[in-house]
Inverse folding.
């Protein structure tokens, strides 16, 4: 009579351990700043934590500036149109030991808000294509063969929080033929025309990167305790 309950609890334990979070940042209490969450970004995507100006009640958010200012605030720096947020330098994160490359997957998610006065260019017609936001994952840090998902700037409604997500299979081997053991996740703000003025291009919040693992984990302490209790009860009933 107790068996179905135990099976349910065991299955719940396995399901709960089926995804491992390897990085989070909400610019508040989870990974706030470069110490635990994302770095502050390169010079083409400087990101500063500020109180949420959108009225959504989410606390702090990251304000992304793709105006290419120098580190001291002067500028413009005028270099690459690629603005990037990554994990703290060197940006690489080891995959969990339980992750099976070629079988398991990685999910990258973030909330993104485009203000109506964004410094990004939304004129797809005038520039041949709109600026865009990309989620990128590089296997073992190699540029070639990376997984990516793209959103054109003009496809995201202004003054609205968008929950964006990208799930991809962990590549079994990188482009050099080596087994994939680490990733570099990148949140990319592509200023295609390289003409953005200093200011807020977007707000970002609730970044999360997780790995699904197909390997069955060892029983948790709670499950072992339940099993022990069931054995004890069966003995008492006899």
């Amino acid at each position: 009579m107790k068996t179905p309950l135990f099976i349910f609890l065991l299955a719940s334990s396995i399901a709960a351990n089926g995804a491992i979070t390897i990085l989070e940042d909400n610019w508040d209490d989870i990974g706030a700043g470069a110490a635990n969450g994302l770095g502050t970004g390169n010079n083409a995507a400087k990101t500063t934590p500020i109180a949420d100006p959108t009225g959504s009640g989410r606390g702090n958010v990251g304000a992304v500036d793709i105006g290419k200012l120098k580190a001291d605030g002067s500028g413009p720096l005028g270099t690459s149109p690629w603005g990037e947020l990554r994990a703290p330098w060197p940006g690489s994160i080891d995959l969990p030991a339980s992750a099976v490359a070629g079988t398991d997957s990685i999910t990258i998610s973030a909330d993104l808000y485009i203000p109506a006065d964004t410094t990004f260019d939304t004129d797809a017609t005038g520039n041949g294509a709109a600026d865009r936001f990309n989620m990128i994952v590089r296997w073992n840090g190699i540029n070639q063969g990376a997984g990516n998902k793209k959103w054109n700037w003009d496809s995201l409604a202004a003054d609205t929080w968008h929950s964006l997500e990208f799930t991809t299979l962990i590549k079994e081997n990188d482009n050099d033929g080596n087994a994939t053991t680490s990733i570099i996740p990148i949140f990319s703000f592509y200023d295609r025309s390289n003409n953005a003025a200093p200011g807020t291009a977007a707000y970002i919040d609730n970044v999360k990167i997780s790995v699904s693992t197909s390997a069955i984990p060892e029983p948790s302490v709670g499950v072992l305790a339940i099993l022990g209790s069931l054995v004890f009860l069966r003995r008492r009933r006899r």
